[in-house]
């Protein structure tokens, strides 16, 4: 987990440094850069592409590759009610 969140840690520490620099200088552009960094951190947590959020979710669930498991999962979730499962074949 620490490895997965390394980029997030770096972004947040850098943003804190920029906030401290803003406190010293008063340049409002630094706050805009902090906002951009925060938006980048949020983007990193999208689990749909293999960014930090994907690997955090993989480590939390114990499933190493979600994309290989998505097809069987969707087949079970989206199964039509009138269709019988493979174990009920006669």
Number of helical segments with 4 or more residues: 4
User: Runs with pLDDT <50, length 5+?
Assistant: none
User: Roughly what percent helix?
Assistant: 55-70%
The helix/strand order is: HHHH
Tell me the β content. Answer: under 5%
Shape summary: elongated
| Strand-pairing-aware structural class | mainly alpha
Radius of gyration: 21 Å
- What distance lies between the first and last C-alpha atoms, to the nearest angstrom? 47 Å
Structure summary, number of beta strands: 0
Biggest pleated-sheet summary:
none
* Arithmetic mean pLDDT: 83
Short description:
The protein has 4 helices and no strands.
List its salient traits.
90 residues; elongated
Q: Any overview of this molecule?
A:
The protein is mainly α and 90 residues long. The chain is built from four helices and no strands. It has helices at residues 6-25, 29-44, 52-61, 66-77. The longest helix is centred in the first third of the chain and has 20 residues, at 6-25. The chain is elongated and about 70 Å long. The N and C termini lie far apart (47 Å).
SSE blueprint:
Elements: H1 6-25, H2 29-44, H3 52-61, H4 66-77
């Amino acid at each position: 987990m620490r490895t997965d969140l390394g980029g997030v840690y770096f972004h947040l520490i850098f943003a804190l440094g920029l906030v401290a620099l803003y406190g010293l200088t008063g340049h409002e552009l630094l706050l805009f850069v902090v906002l951009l960094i925060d938006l980048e951190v949020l983007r990193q947590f999208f689990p749909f592409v293999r960014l930090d959020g994907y690997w955090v979710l993989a480590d939390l669930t114990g499933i190493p590759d979600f994309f290989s498991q998505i097809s069987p999962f969707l087949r079970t979730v989206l199964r039509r009610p009138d269709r019988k499962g493979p174990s009920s074949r006669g």
